[in-house]
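Hi, here's the filled form for the chain we discussed.

Project: internal
Contact: R.S.
Residues: 160
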Amino acid sequence: MQTHAEQAYPHEGCGLLLGSFDAEADKKTLVELVFLKNAWAKAVADDLAESGYQASQDMTTARRYWIDPKDMLETQRQARQQGLSIIGVYHSHPDATAVPSMCDRDLAWPAYAYVIVSVRNGLAADLQNWQLDNNHQFQPEPMKIAPASAAKDRMPLLSS
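And the returned structure, exactly as it came back:
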């Protein structure tokens, strides 16, 4: 994620987190990352404005990301073939903190993990994981990073 975010700089990079949900343990297990192209475009901003979202000059790929619905559906199809689910989204904040913006919150879905990578001057500086609570507010979601050598197949990386 950090490397992808650095490569996208000075624009926001984005992608999907594939894995599994364990509702009883309130845990997500990350198995695979899917790096995607930031599909933000003026048409997306215009569509959001029509839906009542306030448009601004900041609505560019340097400050916004968008996952193309076609990419989302194709990733979901491929994940299901592997017995996985989309468990979250990651994106970067160029020259900003790894804290969700109002736009991030407004467009987020419950249950997903939202990992934000802060990239400062082209280098990943921080990485934070968030999840929406019942009041549609982001709360930090604890993250446990397992060493790559700890498991050969599925390694628990994100957990609530």
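Let me know if anything looks off before we file it.
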